[in-house]
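Pilot study result, target chain (404 residues):
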Amino acid sequence: MKILDEITPSEKERKIVEKIIKSVTEKIDIGDAKLELGGSYAKNTFLSGNHDIDIFVKFSYSKYKSKNISDELSKRLKLKFKRVHGSRDYFQFQIKGYTFELIPVFDIKNFSQAKNITDVSPLHKNWVKKHLKNSNDVRLIKKFCRAQNVYGAESYIKGFSGYVLEILTIYHGNFSNLIKNVSRWKLPVYVDFEKHYKSDKDAFEKINKSKRENDLIIVDPVQKDRNAAAAISREKIEKFIESCKNYLHNPSEEFFVEKKLNIKDLIAESGKDKLLIVRIKNLTGKNDVVGSKVLKVFDYLNNELKKNDFKVLKNGWYFNDESVLYYVVKDELLSKNIIHYGPPLKYKKYLEEFGKKYNDYKKSKGRSYVEIERKIKNLKEFAKKLSKDSYIKINVKEIKFKIL
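Predicted structure:
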């Protein structure tokens, strides 16, 4: 496949990365802790051009189990870094265009010793390295999922993590078999490579319900009580299935092309209907947190459109340094008035209170109602009102609406 030439790192790129990693690790003095390469670089599943490098800083479990190892690492680092807050804080810095993340973990042999999910990550890496036969199969499925917008474990994406895709690739043997099998998925779906459970029924009973709300269980090979797919949204799962079906129907390298949001294409697609474009200047902070806030605004605007009787035909969003939301809205005139229903006529007490507020209310089929003037009659009025909305203001730095 031609796409493999684009996403597989060349020998030159590998040597450059290895040289940079070596020069960085040699300069880091962290006492009795150990450095260990992690992430896709360690597993040899990284895509060409990927500039994010994870390094585990492993602290002795017996010596440091009662201490805050993020604070320990912070005191030892002599270089400039950014402390990133998470379930356990880690440290980020950039060198020669590469972003390094130093991740403090306990040096453990078994998941039962883990004090944090991060502690298990080196075990994930070791498992993948032991079982993965062809790294390029993972590269293909990663690129495919990126292009289909179903990749990423961040809370604002709720997509497939690299680790989940690695498990699925190993489970099905290669990229082609993975695509074929996913295209036939009918939820609920159960994957258990290490056969930790006797049956899917056994697994569904023993894995907490809150960890399988999407009806997809991928048992973590190194931690049998964990569903590695728990954070994936049902929407992303269904989109993945549909994308695999479409690819099998018409295999094309177009399925691997990551498309940026194109306003001209959206205008053409919306045709005679209205296109509401919302441009957002994000708050500063960790992508996972900032992205979640943008997603909240996206959902909030969608609900407000529907609440005001606008018919949303299609919507979507693009998250970057500046985010863009879009809504294709049916071009139709809204009624001048809306019907506001009151209590049923049999509830005299509540009906009396309703009558005090609306003394000209009407009755129909045992129910009270009143016609009131619609507050928002068109998208222009909607945009004007929502641009001042307090909920939106706390989630973004700046917001601008445009109707096309």
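One observation from the pilot: Residues 287-307 form the longest helix (21 residues). A full batch analysis is planned for the follow-on phase.
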